[in-house]
Amino acid sequence: MIEQQAAPAGGISSDPVRYLQFEHLLQFPNLVHAIFTRHGGCSQPPCAGLNVSAKEDSSPEAVATNRLLALQALGLESWPCATVWQIHSAEVALLEGDRWEDWLADWPYRALQVAGRELVWTPRPRRKADAILTAERSVLLAMSFADCLPLLFYDPRRQVIALAHAGWRGTARGIALTTVEALQQHFGCQPTDLQVGIGPGIGVCCYAVDEPVRDLFYGRSEFAELPVRPDLRNLVAESAVFSLVPASQEALTASDELQLHLDLWETNRRQLLLAGVRAEHIAIAGLCTACHQEDFFSYRAERGRTGRFPVLLALRPDGA
Ligand SMILES: [Zn+2]
Fold first, then answer.
1. For residue 241, which of 271, 220, 219, 264 has the smallest C-alpha distance?
2. Is the pLDDT of residue 234 over 80?
């Protein structure tokens, strides 16, 4: 991955905004993509840095400022941005023609002054989904993360993008599979044309899970809500990668208990392969958010009291 650094934002933070880009996606001049770290931004602990989620942040002004900083880092603060209410599902949402609630100002019933601009939080309910697909240009797709995997899709032939959110629940429901399927159905994409980046997220090193999680992947039990689509169950089971890791990695003894860990990166990579994406078109960031709390927010490592970093994806206007 290539690290980029924005010019320091005067008076807001001495730590500049930093974001990562996939090398294989940088070869496409029509594509805009950025996976932000927590560096820069003005949120205070426990969300210190570039937090874009209101969940654990006591300052909505800081969240709004951080969103603006992320857009400014790309020089795209005038573009509309679409987002969704991420619910750990395999639901996809199609952005076509109609304007969506703007990520920059999608919080109900508030008006804020940020950097001299008035932002009005709209009371419109957000769409619930975990992937956004579009062929619209000059619209940013935005999602937020802290351990769950960002999946960035680009079809250079059809000029279509998709951004997905894959935590363990979404992965167990097959979000990578449903995203590729929707790209085929709605835009006629060929999976072999797709270029995909699997962003930073919790690694197998840090992702201890319990037995019921494995049961859900293997179809031995079912979610109480949003059940796995019956025709995806075999593929999800086939994709699942778990490993047994000694509970204490420093001092391995014969009596050491083995812990079940989920490999979210590899499981999602396998779903992409099963969906027909070429191995050479998939890049994995290979950065564990729980191992790198100085760079990323980590829900697991920070015990739920943390922020979310943004991922932005867009197509530039024609001919730009
Ligand atoms: Zn780790």
1. 264
2. yes
pLDDT at position 293, please? Answer: 96
Closest CA to 129 of 91, 162, 79, 166: 91
Evaluate whether 132 touches 141 at the Cβ level (below 8 Å).
yes
Check residues 121 and 317 and name the one with the higher pLDDT: 317
- Cα 47 to ligand 1 centroid, rounded to whole Å: 19
What is d(CA 176, CA 285) in angstroms, rounded to the nearest whole number? 16
Name the residues around ion ligand 1, CB cutoff 5 A.
203, 205-206, 288, 290-291
Q: Stretch 52-72: mean pLDDT, rounded?
A: 89
**Which residue in this structure is represented by tokens 């560096």?**
39
Q: What are phi and psi of 175, to 5 degrees?
A: -60, -35
Whole-number Å distance between alpha carbons of 96 and 133: 9
Ligand 1 centre to CA of 24 (Å) is 24
**DSSP 8-state secondary structure symbol assigned to residue 280:** G
Pair of tokens at residue 237: 């089971």
Enumerate domains of the chain plus CATH numbers: 2-202+276-315 (3.60.140.10)
**Rounded to whole angstroms, how far apart are CA atoms 56 and 79?**
27
What confidence tens digit (pLDDT) does each residue in 296-307 have? 999 999 999 999
Using CA atoms, how far apart are residues 57 and 242, in angstroms rounded to an integer?
A: 33
Per-position DSSP letters for 281-294, written without gaps between them? GEEE---BTTT-TT
Between the CA of 202 and the centroid of ligand 1 the distance, in Å, is 6
**pLDDT at residue number 246:** 84
CA distances in angstroms from 72 to 41, 115, 143, 318, listed in the order given:
12, 12, 16, 21
Stated pTM of the model = 0.92
Q: Tell me: pLDDT of 31 over 60.
A: yes
